[in-house]
TrEMBL record:
Protein name: IgLON family member 5
Keywords: Glycoprotein
Gene3D superfamilies in the cross-refs: Immunoglobulins
CDD domains, per database record: Ig (cd00096)
Gene name for this UniProt entry: IGLON5
Organism: Myripristis murdjan (pinecone soldierfish)
Amino acid sequence: SYQLNMSTTPACPLIQLKLALTPSASASSKLELANGAAHLFFLVLSSHRCRIDEEVTHKAWLNRSNILFTGTDKWSLDKRVTLVNSNNSDFSIHISKVQVTDEGPYTCTFQAYNKPRITHVYLIVQVPARIVNISKDVSVNEGENVNLFCLAVGRPEPTVTWKDQKCKLPFLACFDGEFLDITEIKRQQGEDYECITNNGVAPPDKRKVKVTVNYPPMITDVKNMPAQLGKTAILRCEAMAVPTASFEWYRDDHRPVENDNTLRIKNEKTRSLLLFTNVTDKHFGNYTCFASNRLGASNASMLLFRKLSHTHGVRMCTHTSSRSLFHHCCHFCHPISPSSVLPSPLSLLISSCHH
């Protein structure tokens, strides 16, 4: 509770009493403001004490022009306002469950030695900052503009700050104001953005908005892989995309790759695997990974080639024709069948060389 002793000297100035509405586990009441926003006010007690040092004949408490008490007679219909003390030296009132509407001037007046005496107190009610409206989670395509808002109330008026959760973007690490505008958003900016409001009355109120940035697949991990007959082998294709990409595999003659007893396709969240459980001659060749979502597609090719047991005769042979390939790397290089060749004229193949 709050108590205020007020001087009865004529020179007594106007006194301001700041009263904060803070959480209490014991009781609470709810107040609907004019704008329809619900504010929860917790049990707070306020006492106004008028200490009297002279012989008094009449006394009264007023709120603005409304009479609360005259002596021990209560004029106010508000049950929250009660009289604490009423004697020749103390005339105090008590307000429970303080509300914003209780803010304002209070006046203690009394008659002493045929002279009126007046003492004033001004009650200021503080309300913790609270977010009352904020943007919903949003999903946009890369390159679009994003506009977020965060509206807060409180007494005194609170500040509003937007915070970049990943802290990857210096210009968005901390942005003051109710509105956050992002122009031509990038995929790296898809994250949670936190709105923080504070007015120093209570701990800050915080809420987050999730911004999802959609973009087409981009294949990031493609490697040619060696394999031995009768052994296992894996070709990997990883693609970053939002929404998550779907994967398809094709052979060099554009045939779709399908599961069989020696080959299995395993699709994970961001990648697809070709699992060879028993490599045979038919498995060697070029494979194309195709990743797609509703925004676009991407593809990349890779080679599953035979790993030689003797490496001293291995050379890199440049592909110069899509139909046949001859290149002297030692004494000569065996022709490579078209099924083993990448479709690009700049692709590299490995062939066995004989001395």
